[in-house]
Design goal:
By secondary structure, the chain is mostly helical. It has one domain. It is built from 13 helices and no strands. Helix 6 packs antiparallel against helix 10. It is globular, with a radius of gyration of 20 Å.
């Protein structure tokens, strides 16, 4: 528990900054976009906006409150991925970059306990941020939706937020256990997250099923969620298979690899 508490203290500032940023974003942007749908001319201009097609969002669904939330959520997911990936990359590699890995290993903790403590701390960080985002989104959409909204639609769209964070967190941890020496986690996290997002946009433009497999952002089809309240079983299965692969690879690599000092 000492490792867990220490890591949570280290990331208090990050939790606060990201929570405030995401809460402010959804509170400010969601009412603004909803107000646009009340203007017929604005709706017509949105219908001709190629960005919606690029992002794979139907205009018929976009003009609903939950549809607008899905649009904003799909953009916010990029920020969520960057934060989670940066956390995953830094929580392991910082011991190597700060030359504290050997010191930590000499303590009366097994490598399994160290790894799981760090994993639990990182999961708590993204869980707290996810809860703040959920509360802000739910309160905002409840206040601005004049004709009500489907909570099941809303929750299924929101659920992509913690799932994407979990994906990039475990991906970052796997990379950090393999590479160890990541001197600049944030630029790498930016590159990884934007790279996957661009692949997802590309798969929408060319309608490529193969390209879609390489972007976790495209494993969740918001149009399908809003239309039938379902995720696609094949992509969800692949998603959780990758999560399991990331975890097993990270764990086995961490407990077996040599701890090297950075001079």
């Amino acid at each position: 528990m000492n490792i867990f508490r220490f890591e949570m203290k280290q990331y208090r500032g990050s939790i606060l900054v990201w929570s405030i940023g995401l809460v402010a974003t959804i509170i400010l942007l969601l009412p603004m976009f909803v107000s646009l749908t009340g203007d017929p001319s604005a709706t017509e201009s949105l219908a001709d906006n190629p960005m919606l097609d690029t992002m794979g969002i139907s205009i018929d669904l976009f003009i609903t409150t939950t549809g607008i939330f899905s649009y904003l959520n799909s953009i916010i997911l990029v920020a969520a991925a960057i934060q989670a990936c940066n956390l995953g990359l830094s929580i392991i590699t910082k011991e190597h970059m700060q030359n504290t890995a050997d010191f930590l290993i000499t303590k009366p903790y097994s490598r399994t306990k160290i790894f799981l403590s760090k994993l639990m701390a990182s999961l708590c960080v993204i869980a707290i941020i996810g809860i703040c985002y959920f509360l802000a989104s739910f309160v905002t959409i409840s206040m601005i939706s004049e004709q009500g909204f489907s909570f099941s639609h809303f929750f299924q769209i929101y659920l992509t937020f913690p799932l994407i964070q979990l994906f990039f967190l475990l991906l970052g941890i796997m990379i950090s256990t393999i590479v160890s020496r990541v001197s600049a986690p944030l630029p790498l996290a930016l590159g990884i997250s934007f790279g996957f997002y661009v692949i997802g946009l590309f798969s929408n433009v060319v309608q490529s099923t193969i390209a879609r497999l390489f972007s976790p952002f495209r494993y969740f089809d918001f149009n399908l969620v809003l239309a039938s309240e379902n995720y696609e079983a094949g992509y969800i299965t692949l998603f959780f298979a990758l999560l399991l692969l990331f975890f097993i690879t990270s764990y086995i690599t961490y407990i077996r690899k040599d701890m090297k000092m950075v001079l």
